[in-house]
């Protein structure tokens, strides 16, 4: 197995992990009202709510993981395009 094949495999594993993590982070966000989140029980948790700091940190982590996910996806695409593996 070549070094580039190992890099591609590692990037694919990282992409799957980031995909699952990103899905979980998005599902943790509080609903802003009236949408699908209220249909699935989001309206029940509006009174409990999350603090502003927790919501900001959740937003930051979501954006960071999303950007890393895009970077890994682009890297894998470039590897496939230029037949590096």
UniProtKB/TrEMBL annotation:
Q: Name one GO molecular function term.
A: protein-transporting ATPase activity
Q: Which UniProt keywords apply?
A: Cell membrane, Membrane, Protein transport, Translocation, Transmembrane, Transmembrane helix, Transport
Q: Where in the cell is it found?
A: Cell membrane; Membrane
Annotated membrane-spanning segments are: 6-27, 61-79
- Name the principal localization, coarsely classed: membrane
Q: Which family does it belong to?
A: Belongs to the SecG family.
Q: Its membrane topology, per UniProt?
A: Multi-pass membrane protein
Q: What role does this protein play? A: Involved in protein export. Participates in an early event of protein translocation.
Per its record, how is this protein called by name? Protein-export membrane protein SecG
Concerning Pfam families, the annotation shows: SecG
